[in-house]
C-alpha cells in the first residue's frame, strides 16, 4: 500500500528532480494547490503554490524522512521566495492528508526551528490538503528532459536534522 504527500517549496521542477530519486518514492507529479482557482494552470493559478505530489511506500521511507529531505533542499525561512523565484506561488508549505501527517509536520518544523540549521524562523505553512491541479505535461519531469534547466533546489551534503530532546 502507498501513501501520498503534498509539498510546496518553490519551483516544482527542482523539488521533483530531487525527491523522485529518494528510496521509497514510487511516483511524483507537479501541480498547483492551496489556492483559489479551479482547474489551475501555469498561466492562471491564482493564489496556488507550485507543489509536488509524492506517492511513496511507507515500508521503504517515512513521511518524516520525506519532510527532512524537503527541509534540506529548500530554504523554509524565506517568505514567498526560493532563490530568484519570488511570489506566493513559491511559498513553503506542507499540505497534510490526515491528522498524523499534520502532527509529524508540526513536530518536524519544531525540530528545524530548534536546530538553528537555517538562519531564520521557519515560515512553512501547514494546511489541510485540498484540490491538486496537475501541471501541464511540459512541466512534468522537466529537469530530466532539460538537465541543465533552472533550479534553485539542491541537497546540502552532511545536512542532518537532529530531533529535539523533548521529542525523543
Strand order of the largest sheet: 7-6-1-3-2-8
Poorly predicted tracts of residues: none
Derived structural class: alpha+beta
Q: What does the radius of gyration come to? A: 15 Å
The count of strands amounts to 8
Broad shape: globular
Assembly context of the chains: single chain
Percent of residues in β-strands: 15-25%
What is the CA–CA distance across the termini?
28 Å
Largest sheet: 6 strands, mixed
Overall mean pLDDT stands at 94
The total count of helices amounts to 4
Order of secondary-structure elements: EHEEHEEEHEEH
Helix content: 10-25%
Question: Which SSEs are present, and which pair or pack?
Answer:
Layout: E1 3-9, H1 12-19, E2 25-33, E3 49-56, H2 63-73, E4 81-82, E5 85-86, E6 92-96, H3 99-115, E7 125-128, E8 132-134, H4 142-145
Parallel strand pairs: 6-7
Antiparallel strand pairs: 1-3, 1-6, 2-3, 2-8, 4-5
Kindly summarize this structure in a few lines.
The protein has helices spanning 12-19, 63-73, 99-115, 142-145, and strands at residues 3-9, 25-33, 49-56, 81-82, 85-86, 92-96, 125-128, 132-134. With 168 residues, the protein is α+β, with helices and mostly antiparallel strands. Helix 3 (99-115) links the parallel strand 6 and strand 7 (125-128).
Amino acid at each position: 500500500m502507498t501513501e501520498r504527500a503534498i509539498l510546496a517549496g518553490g519551483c516544482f521542477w527542482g523539488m521533483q528532480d530531487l525527491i523522485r530519486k529518494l528510496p521509497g518514492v514510487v511516483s511524483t507529479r507537479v501541480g498547483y494547490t492551496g489556492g483559489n482557482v479551479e482547474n489551475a494552470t501555469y498561466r492562471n493559478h491564482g493564489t496556488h503554490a507550485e507543489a509536488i505530489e509524492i506517492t511513496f511506500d511507507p515500508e521503504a521511507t517515512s513521511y518524516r524522512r520525506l519532510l527532512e529531505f524537503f527541509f534540506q533542499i529548500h530554504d523554509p525561512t524565506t517568505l514567498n521566495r526560493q532563490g530568484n523565484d519570488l511570489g506566493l506561488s513559491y511559498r513553503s508549505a506542507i499540505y497534510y492528508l490526515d491528522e498524523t501527517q499534520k502532527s509529524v509536520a508540526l513536530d518536524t518544523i519544531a525540530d528545524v526551528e530548534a536546530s538553528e540549521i537555517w538562519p531564520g524562523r521557519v515560515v512553512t505553512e501547514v494546511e489541510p490538503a485540498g484540490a491538486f491541479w496537475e501541471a501541464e505535461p511540459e512541466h512534468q519531469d522537466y529537469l530530466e528532459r532539460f538537465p541543465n534547466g533552472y533550479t534553485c533546489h539542491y541537497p546540502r551534503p552532511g545536512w542532518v536534522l537532529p530531533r529535539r530532546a523533548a521529542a525523543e
